[in-house]
Please model this.
Amino acid sequence: MASFKTFLKAGHPPTLFASFLYFDFCFAIWVLNGAMAPFISEAFALTPAQKGFMISVPIMSGAIMRFPLGVLSQYIGRKRAALVEMGLILIAMIYGYFAVSTYNDVLAMGVLLGIAGASFGVALSLGSGWFPPQYKGLAMGIAGAGNSGTVLAVLLAPPLATSYGWQNVYGFAAFTMLIPFLVMLIFAKEPPDRGDDHNLKEMLKCLVEKDGWVFNAIYIITFGGFIGLSNFLPTYFHDQFGVTKIQAGQLTMLAAVMGSGIRILGGYVSDRWGGINSLTLVFVMVTILMFINSTMPSITATTILFMCTFAFLGMGNGSLFQLVPLRWPITTAVAGSMIGEIGALGGGFIPNAMGISKQYYGSFSYGFIAFGIFSALVFIVLRVAQRRWTRTWVGKGGKAINAHAEEVKTYS
Model:
C-alpha cells in the first residue's frame, strides 16, 4: 500500500483517472459492432466472411486514425485532442441512431466507430505523462486498462439490443460519452512532457526506425489479438456453440475482463521484472494457447482457455508499453499511436481469418492456427531485437535505467 501511495504522489492521479475513463468509454464504443454482431448478422443474413469483414472494419478504421490523432496531440495538447475526439464520437453516435438501416450503413458506421479507436496513444501518454520512468509501466497499465470498455460493450449492448433494437444502442452510446468528456474537461491537466521543441520531422522518426517496427509486430499479437478476439468472440460463441446472443456476450465478458485487469499487472511486473522478460513469457504462452484453442474443445474448456489467453495478451500490452516511454521519452504519444495503429490493423486479421476459415473449410480451427504461427514468428523477432536493446537504451530484461528517486520530485 505504501508503495502505491508513493506511486500516486509521484504523478497526478486525477489526470490518470480521467485518461482511464476516456479510454474505457472510447473502447466500449469502438467494439460496439462486434458486441452486436450476432444481431446485425441475423438482421442481414450475413455469410461467415461478411461477418468477419463487418467486425474488422471498425478495428482497421480506428487503427488508421490513431497516428494522426497522436500527431495532433503533440501540437494542441493531449487533453484538447481527447476532448475533440469525444465530441466527434458523440456526433457519430447520433448519426448511427438516425441513419443506420442497411448492411452498407453498418459498414459506414464501422468507419465512424474507428474514431473511438483512435484514443489509445493519447490516453496512455496523457495518463502516464506526469509519472517518472520507474512508474511509467504501472501508469500506462492503469490508463491502458481502459480496454475494459470491451466488458461494458459485450455485457450491456446485447441486452439493450434485445429490448430496444440494435440500432438504438448507438443512441444510448451517445449519452455515455458525456461522462468521460466532463471528467476530462474538469479534472485532467496537460503533463509537462509534451516536447514542444520537437518538429514534425523529429516526431515522425519512429516511423522509420527498426525498433518501431519490432514494437509494431509485437503489438499486432498482444493488442491485435486482444481487439480481434474480443470483437469476434460473441459471433464465435453464438455460431460454434449455439448459445443465445446475450450468453455469447457474457462469455466474451469473462475473457475480456481478464485481459483488461491483467494489463495493469503487466505494467507493474514489467517495471520490476523487465518488459522484455514479461513479453518472453507472454509469447510462449499465447502461441501454445492458440494451438490448443484450434482443437475446438467444449464450451467450458474454451471459455477457460480464452480467459487464460486474454490474461497473457493483456499482460503483453502492459509490458510493451512499459518499454515505449523508455525508448521514446519525448514523443511517447506519437510513438504509442503509431504502434497502436499497426497493432490494431493487425487486429483485423483475426475476424477475417476466422470468417474465411469457417466459410471455406467449415471450421474456425485454421484461424487459430494461423495466429499461433504468426505469434511464434514474432517471438523470434523479439528475442533477436532485445540483444541490441539491452546494450543501448534499456536495462537487463527490459528494466528502466537511471530511474533515480530525485526524478520523482521533478515530475510531481
